[in-house]
Amino acid sequence: MKFNWSDQRIAQLKAMVADGGTAGSIAAEWSVSRNTVAGKMDRLGLRRDQPPKEPKQPRKPQIRRHKKNRPIGPVMPVAAPPPPPEPLPPPPFHPGPVDLGDNPVMALTWSSCRFPLGDPRHADFRFCGERKIGLSPYCECHSKLAFIPMKAGKKLEVA
Question: Is 64 a member of any domain?
């Protein structure tokens, strides 16, 4: 239900606030919600005079300690980081790409190595074209480049 704020009601509200009336007591007297009165007081900029609060005394800084963060025994030194891995050996000599003509993709067969050579955006881009090994899409030389075996004890991290 909407409450109509007439000029007479607004004058009464101002007088009741000046006398120290609270939004709750005014709302109870007029049978409206406290929020109705508080909202109108806020829109009119009416504030009840409140005694000034005493300033709080500044607290002394306290050191917080948590039992979980305390060391239980002697602190172990941090181990040095492992040395960087050795660089990969250079790939074995490869005779070079097989000439597949003008359309290298269409010239590939099911037994052709599909290792890309060069930049796909350039005209000289080719695929290896050598005979692939087993089920691998690459020849023996490019299989060694493409598939690096995992080191023993190292687990594959899945994101």
Answer: no
Tell whether 61 is covered by a domain.
no
Q: Which residues on neighbouring strands pair with residue 126, listed in sequence order?
A: 117
pLDDT band per the 50, 70, 90 thresholds, residue 11: very high
Query: Cβ–Cβ contacts within 10 Å for residue 137, how many?
Result: 14
In a domain, residue 106? The reply is yes
| Among the listed residues 139, 136, 129, the one whose alpha carbon sits nearest the alpha carbon of residue 104 | 129
Distance separating alpha carbons of residues 118 and 97, to the nearest angstrom: 11
- pLDDT tens-digit series, residues 126-141: 888 888 888 888 888 8
Domain with 135 in it? 97-147
Q: Which two tokens stand for residue 117?
A: 């050579």
Rounded to 5 degrees, φ, ψ at 54 are: -75, 140
Neighbours of 16 (CB within 10 A): 19
Q: How confident is the model at residue 98 (pLDDT cuts 50, 70, 90)?
A: low
* Count of domains observed in the chain: 2
**Is residue 18 predicted with pLDDT exceeding 60?**
yes
Residues pairing with 60 in the sheet = none
